[in-house]
Design goal:
The complex is a heterodimer of chains A (244) and B (355). Chain A has 244 residues and is of the alpha/beta class. Chain A has helices spanning 42-50, 72-78, 95-103, 109-114, 117-131, 147-159, 177-187, 203-209, 227-231, 234-243; strands spanning 2-13, 16-27, 31-35, 57-62, 65-66, 80-83, 165-169, 195-199, 212-217, 220-226. Chain A has a domain at 2-71 and 165-187 and 194-243: Rossmann fold (3-Layer(aba) Sandwich). Helices cover 38% and strands 26% of the residues of chain A. In chain A, strand 9 and strand 10 form a beta hairpin. Chain A starts with a strand and ends with a helix. The model of chain A has no long low-confidence stretch (mean pLDDT 90). With 355 residues, chain B is an all-alpha fold. In chain B, helix 3 crosses helix 12. Classes of the chains: A alpha/beta (244), B mainly alpha (355). At the A-B interface, helix 2, helix 3, helix 4, helix 5 and helix 6 of A face helix 8, helix 9, helix 10 and helix 14 of B.
Chain lengths: 244, 355
């Protein structure tokens, strides 16, 4: 069953056509990679899905609801979570508070005011921190973490909301090879309850964790298929051997 | 500032000590000052409530408001009208009416400035509140029914039952009780889980929106609450001073509210109280020195400029760490340790393959 259906999505910046009639279907519980050369429109498409900017044409249907013009907060409440390309943890808050902030996002104002869920959410917050190997840094400020740890913290923040679809924009950017492998292992268990759309330049990483790939080039879908199909695609090989 | 010093300050917890010291000082004021000085101090308490309302907006929620005096003045006029036109001067009615007028006017301004389709910029909100404050000042200055440029005198004293509250020690303690209530209410908000949302909003609004928070609604709520307490101070101010005029809702007092907050130290609440006490005491002292009489506003302005320019965290920034200002919102490190959560050692390393 399709969790995300993107139909004929276009995005124009002035005279620049960043996306042009893009069709992508992401099924539930699948890991879907968006790859392509620099400037091919991967991050633009991801941002259009998350609501960071709006598509100028086409429709985006998530979990059966048209979210093309929904705000980021509305999309998040429907189960869509985004990890930014540039790490966007809250630097002056502790690691613990970053996760708590993500976890309490859908609580009512009255709940927040009374701080009723503080103790209730504690075990869950610590569980996520332990899972992402950050429990011993819980009281440190987020800005004191290494780049890789900040990436993990942001993924933890996105996952703590139990999204139906997680959007990851270059999650391993700036990570060491060891950290990349660890990130792959940290993501694997979420497959049971969450689909993933990932934009990533590290093709080995994408190949290892994704089920399907969509290749973008000049804002259009160049090819779409399983990892094996894409690896054997002549069109993709041509783009990657001549321009990347 | 070194990290070690930050950590030491965080452990000592400067804020509760300052809060305690300020409270003891405020309780003692009528016992150690003349009646005239107590009246001046009461005025400072009322301005401190206004300054706290600014701190809630800017220091905690990232709303740069240059119009807090609008809500102060609106309630001041409402209270004066109740007294002069309806003969109603009971505290039990004046206080809630003042709060209601402040709340409703802040909701209206907030609805226009914060709840539009596009996310407003800091400059837009600053100019919007400034314009609203200026427009209101001009409006009442030309409106004969509310005394136009002469303002309105309030001849009757505020009453609790049949007891008249003349400016003096009793009035001082009544206002101190209101200040404490506003302070504790504001403190409850900023230290609650809602306070965590505000702390996050101040750092990265966009991130909060992607987490599912309706950021502008939270801002509008805090703005309304701040308007409500600014209104309370305005209503009581009209009775304390026996007068309310266009200047009490204009950009002059609005700018003072900003300066009180910045001078004392935004994002601490108690900094607003310290800021009012420091600026008003300086102004009072300087204006009393014969040789300085013509120059005191200039001297005061230069002092404020130096502090705001070279110490953006205000006077309290000298003793309160950034970590302590922002606060911690979970169940607390001590409680976590008691539960056996979190390893004591730091692990800066990345996990090894196969770990």
């Amino acid at each position: 069953m399709a969790l995300l259906e993107i139909r004929g999505v276009g995005k124009t910046y002035g005279v620049l056509r960043a996306l042009d009639g893009v069709d992508v279907t992401v099924s539930a519980e699948s890991f879907h990679g968006l790859i392509g050369p620099n400037g091919s429109g991967k991050s633009t498409l991801l941002k259009a899905i998350a609501g960071a900017h709006y598509a100028t044409e086409g429709t985006i249907v998530f979990d059966g609801v048209d979210v093309t013009t929904a705000t980021p907060a509305e999309r998040s409440r429907r189960g869509l979570s985004l990890k930014f390309q540039i790490t966007a943890v809250l630097p002056e808050l502790s690691v613990y508070d970053n996760v708590l902030l993500a976890q309490q996002a859908h609580r009512t104002l009255w709940d927040l005011l009374r701080s009723r869920s503080r103790a209730e959410l504690h075990d869950e917050v610590m569980g996520w921190l332990e899972r992402f190997r950050l429990a011993d840094r819980a009281d440190d400020l987020a800005e004191e973490l290494s780049h890789g740890q900040q990436q993990w913290l942001e993924i933890a923040m996105a996952l703590t909301q139990r999204p139906k679809l997680l959007l990851l924009d270059e999650p391993t950017g700036g990570m060491s090879p060891e950290e990349r492998r660890a990130t792959g292992r940290l993501l694997e268990p979420i497959r049971e309850h969450c689909a993933l759309v990932i934009v990533e330049h590290d093709l080995d990483f994408v190949r290892d964790i994704c089920d399907r790939l969509t290749v973008l080039d000049n804002g259009k879908v160049l090819d779409d298929g399983t990892v094996e199909e894409i690896q054997n695609s002549r069109k993709v090989q041509e783009v990657y051997t001549t321009r990347v | 500032m070194t990290e070690a010093r930050e950590t030491t300050r965080a452990r000592i917890g400067a804020l509760p000590i300052i809060e305690g010291a300020v409270l003891v000082g405020l309780l003692a004021v009528p016992h150690v000052t003349t009646d005239f000085q107590t009246i001046i101090a009461t005025r400072m308490l009322l301005l401190a409530i206004l300054a706290i309302s600014f701190d809630l907006c800017w220091g905690y929620s990232g709303i740069m408001t240059f119009g807090q005096a609008l809500f102060f003045g609106m309630s001041g006029y409402a209270a004066a009208l109740l007294a002069n036109k309806a003969g109603f001067v009971q505290l039990w009615g004046i206080a809630p009416v003042s709060m209601l007028v402040g709340l409703v006017s802040a909701l209206v301004v907030g609805w226009f400035l914060l709840l539009g389709k596009r996310t407003p910029t800091i400059i837009f909100v600053a100019l919007g509140t400034l314009t609203a404050s200026y427009a209101a000042e001009r409006l009442v200055a030309g409106w004969q029914w509310v005394g136009a440029a002469n303002g309105m005198s309030v001849w009757d004293f505020l009453k609790i039952g049949s007891h008249e509250l003349e400016p003096g020690p009793v009035f001082y303690y009544v206002i101190l009780a209101f200040l404490l209530a506003c302070y504790l209410g504001a403190r409850w908000i900023v230290r609650s889980q809602l306070g965590l949302v505000l702390a996050g909003m101040r750092q990265n609004e966009e991130r909060l929106a992607f987490l599912g928070y309706r950021v502008q609604r939270f801002k509008a709520l805090v703005f309304a609450f701040a308007g409500m307490i600014a209104g309370l101070s305005g209503g009581l101010y009209a009775f304390h001073e026996g007068f309310i005029g266009p200047g009490s809702m204009g950009i002059g007092l609005s700018t003072y509210a900003v300066l009180y907050g910045l001078f004392g130290g935004v994002g601490t609440l108690v900094g607003a109280v310290v800021g009012v006490a420091a600026i008003e005491t300086l102004a009072f002292t300087l204006s009393d020195v014969d040789a300085l009489k013509p120059y005191w506003p200039v001297i005061l302005g230069v002092i404020m400029l130096v502090v705001v320019a070279y110490r953006p965290t205000g006077l309290l920034g000298l003793v309160v760490s950034r970590r302590e200002r922002i606060g911690s919102f979970g169940i607390g490190a001590r409680a976590r340790k008691a539960r056996g959560d979190g390893a004591p050692a730091r692990a800066d390393r990345a996990p090894e393959p196969g770990e």
